[in-house]
Fold this protein.
Amino acid sequence: TRYWRDWSSDVCSSDLPGKVVYPVLKCIPMGDTNAVWVAQNVHRRILERFDALPADVRLSQRKDCPRGDLWGDVYIDDYAILKILRKGQFDTRTDIELLEHARKAYAHANVGLKDSKAVVNAEEGRVWGPIVSGVDRYCGAARTRRLELAALTLGFISIGKASKKSLQCLLGNWVGALEYRRPAFAILSKTYAFTQALKSDLLIVTVPDEILDELRMLCIVTPFLETNLEAELVCTLGATDASQDRSEEHTSELQS
């Protein structure tokens, strides 16, 4: 185009006119819906070039977890490496080696690091949102956070009235905690249906007792909304179905 032809020779090659041009941006335009995808994949490529994120340790969606004792990946701008240390195992710290590779990768790419935010050699820490604890052997929303949610919900119950907007905000705050014990979402089946059926976002209505009961049950199970990292895998898959006059139950052993 004329715009490209008018560029001076100190900006582009003098033989540019008449050739196909592939513009390359050094930044992501504001409002680009692909920004998060681009940022995350660029981050991965930076680390992969220095062997700081091997394919056999990466956590990938819809794929099995890595078979070894070393897991890691990138979540936008956060890089995490987790290693399962056996008792007395201090000689093969491949996690520390990967972290050193990552530092070299960031230095090569002129990426600034904040050492104050780095967590190294920790038995417990926040990784991409949840707490991963090698002390209490669990993964889930911070226990103090869940306690605050339960207190907020009990206060909500004591009022007994709400708008659609306030119910949506309350349920939205619980999602992060429920992710680590997903069957607990079933507790709120009527609450979700009731909230969805409300037509006005701001109209204050009386909350039915059955909805308040579900919220009370949610508070009761709050301590259990975490994943036990030492739990054994169950290799038996069960399925049931029932009608008014009969029921069926089947089980199948899964291959490990």
Q: What stands out?
A: The longest helix spans residues 143-159. The beta strands are 70-75, 78-83, 124-126, 131-133, 138-140, 161-162, 205-206, 227-228, 236-242, 247-253.
